[in-house]
Design a protein that fits this description.
Elements lengths: L14 H8 L16 E2 L10 E2 L9 H7 L2
Parallel strand pairs: 1-2
């Protein structure tokens, strides 16, 4: 699902930099996270208010993944 689009950034810009820009308070179209809600993000982001990232180098659900490959 796409919740927010912020055009104008080059492909070389880091994801976290683009996210910070999208959440700036002075933007009329700022990206706002509803109170008490979280977005699951990849390990390239940090945990913070409204964002839940996995721990780096942690292999989640490894047993389930290995058994599905057989």
């Amino acid at each position: 699902m796409i919740f927010f689009v912020l055009p104008g950034w080059e492909g070389s810009a880091s994801d976290s930099r683009v996210l910070r820009d999208a959440m700036r308070n002075d933007r009329q179209d700022a990206f706002v996270i509803p109170q008490g809600k979280y977005y699951l993000v990849d390990a390239g982001y940090t945990n913070g208010p409204g964002f839940l990232a996995p721990f780096r180098s942690t292999r989640y659900h490894l047993k389930e993944w290995v058994s599905s490959q057989q």
